[in-house]
Amino acid sequence: MKEGEQSINSGIEIGLYTLADIGPDPLTGTSVSARQRIMDIIAAAKLADEAGFDVFGVGEHHRLDYAVSAPPVILAAIAQVTKRIKLTSTTTVLSTVDPVRLFEDFATLDLVSDGRAEIIAGRGAFVESFPLFGYDTSDYDELFSEHLELFLKLNKHENITWSGRFRPPLRNAEISPRPVQKQLPIWVGVGGTLDSAARAGRLGVPMAIAMLGGDPKRFMPLVAAYHSAGIEAGHNFEALKLGVTGHGYVSKTTQQAKDEFYPYYSNYWSYVNRQRGMAFRMTRADYEQMTGPNTALFVGSPQQIAEKILRQYELFGHQRFIAQIDIGGLPFHKVASGIELIATEIIPVVRKATSK
């Protein structure tokens, strides 16, 4: 969708994202290949586009147990089998990518997709990209700040002169190609850090909050810090867009959804925490608490998930909600079933309730 065009849908935007984890199916013990995982992601994006979702995101990791290290490549492949859905990274680890290369990649994606490219940039929960690309983790935050500042300048100007600490200076450099959109939309992904929320507000860029569990109310200080910093920096409140991201699984009834998803969700956190050097086993009691009606984990019937989305909308007034529904070795046929249920039984309810 080109800048300035209105969405064909009213209400908040609803989308899906994937981190492309390659985990064994806990019920069968088998894992798909990286190639099959990518093919499944492309197929899921095609289904989401046909079903009327607004956005589809692909994450970045640099590990053998994840299938995607180059989101713009996968998104370009998705662009060829979709027509209208927005295509975003979720997230780009901005600290360890050259901003010029990032701009070129996503500007090219924007041309290939006829103006549908976006970026969600974050500092990253994993740090394997730092040694891989020659960066020091002690510069974690400073790298992100400098790279984000440079990207925003590249986004505005065809020619740029710039100097910073972490990369060679640019002297009247031509930044090409230019995207279809006037500027590439870039969101800042935030976990739980007030300083990160305030930085997004000062820069006047949209903020996407990763709400992976607990009471959604605990994220309200992030939203307040974002809005306060943005308004203080002179940005219009309307320009300070918010997105909410979270894990989800939907089935016909809440009990069925909880029963079906527990092996996969427990499996997911088992290997993710093991990747981080942590020992953790999710009990069924833990899971029952995490999936309660007042939490940020979207597991349940279409009615319960719609209610959770709308409860968060009352809290935050956000413009976008995107869910990750393909984790823990979940087989593709269950992902496809979830896409259909969300499209037919959740999206219409949420759009009607959030329409102006």
UniProtKB/TrEMBL annotation:
Domain Luciferase-like: 13-315
InterPro entries associated with the record: Bact_Lucif_Oxidored, Luciferase-like_dom, Luciferase-like_sf
Alphabetically ordered keywords of this record: Monooxygenase, Oxidoreductase
Protein name: Luciferase
